[in-house]
């Protein structure tokens, strides 16, 4: 296993936890949204605004090919990446997928602090997140590892992820 792939809702902590795990394992860290922004020379919000969601979803699908031949990397996906274009199956074939299952109220609090989410209006955060969560959970649960993040701080989550990865490596 040479890739760890974090999936989950916007605000779930994929980047925070993914970066910490990559440091622990001394692996390269990739945030797919930042990767796309760098390749396109534009922010995710601008890509959505100027070229539309379908264009962005195609970009997400296409960048997965860039990671196929790479090893020793931790990838944090955008919240919608696993949902479209059969990407969840592709992610599962690329590496060990880890779903950070974060309670809706925690997601709301985190997203209130971040206004760069193109699919979430600051005016109706909770309602929009509940709709997204309902639509996405079934696909997220196809991940190899599911981490229940309720009532846990980031250090507890990082330790749980590392312990589960070790268990998975033993069973390979």
From TrEMBL:
Database matches in InterPro entries: P-loop_NTPase, Shikimate/glucono_kinase, Shikimate_kinase/TSH1
Gene Ontology MF term list:
ATP binding; magnesium ion binding; shikimate kinase activity
Q: What is its EC number?
A: 2.7.1.71
If you read the UniProt record, what top EC class would you report for this enzyme, in one word?
Answer: transferase
A Gene Ontology annotation in the biological process aspect, one of them, is: aromatic amino acid family biosynthetic process
The answer on whether this UniProt entry bears the keyword Amino-acid biosynthesis reads yes
Which keywords does the record carry? Amino-acid biosynthesis, Aromatic amino acid biosynthesis, ATP-binding, Cytoplasm, Kinase, Magnesium, Metal-binding, Nucleotide-binding, Transferase
Q: Spell out the GO cellular component terms annotated for this protein, sorted alphabetically and separated by semicolons.
A: cytosol
Quote the record's binding site residues for Mg(2+): 15
Q: Which residues bind substrate?
A: 33, 57, 79, 136
- Kindly list the places in or outside the cell where this protein is found, as annotated in its UniProt entry: Cytoplasm
Which chemical reaction does it catalyze? shikimate + ATP = 3-phosphoshikimate + ADP + H(+)
Tell me the route in metabolism or biology where this protein functions. Metabolic intermediate biosynthesis; chorismate biosynthesis; chorismate from D-erythrose 4-phosphate and phosphoenolpyruvate: step 5/7
Would the keyword Membrane be found if you checked this record's keyword annotation? Answer: no
Pfam families the record matches? SKI
CDD domains listed in its UniProt record: SK (cd00464)
- What does the entry list as the binding residues for ATP? 11-16, 117
Assembly and binders: Monomer.
Family, according to the entry, reads as follows: Belongs to the shikimate kinase family.
Q: What does this protein do?
A: Catalyzes the specific phosphorylation of the 3-hydroxyl group of shikimic acid using ATP as a cosubstrate.
Name listed for the protein in its UniProt record:
Shikimate kinase
Source organism per UniProt: Clostridium algidicarnis DSM 15099
């Amino acid at each position: 296993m040479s890739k760890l792939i974090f999936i989950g809702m916007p605000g779930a902590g994929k980047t925070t936890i993914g970066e910490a795990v990559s440091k622990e394992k001394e692996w390269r860290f990739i945030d797919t949204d930042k990767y796309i922004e760098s390749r396109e020379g534009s922010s995710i919000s601008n890509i959505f605004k100027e070229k539309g969601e379908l264009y962005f979803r195609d970009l997400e699908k296409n960048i997965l090919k860039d990671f196929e031949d790479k090893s020793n990397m931790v990838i944090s996906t955008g919240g919608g990446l696993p949902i479209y274009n059969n990407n969840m199956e592709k992610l599962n074939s690329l590496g060990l997928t880890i779903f950070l299952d974060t309670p809706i109220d925690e997601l709301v609090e985190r997203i209130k602090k971040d206004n760069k989410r193109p699919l979430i209006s600051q005016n109706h955060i909770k309602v929009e997140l509940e709709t997204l969560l309902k639509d996405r959970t079934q696909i997220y649960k196809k991940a190899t590892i599911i981490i229940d993040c309720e009532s846990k701080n980031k250090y507890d989550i990082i330790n749980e992820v590392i312990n589960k990865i070790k268990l998975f490596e033993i069973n390979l």
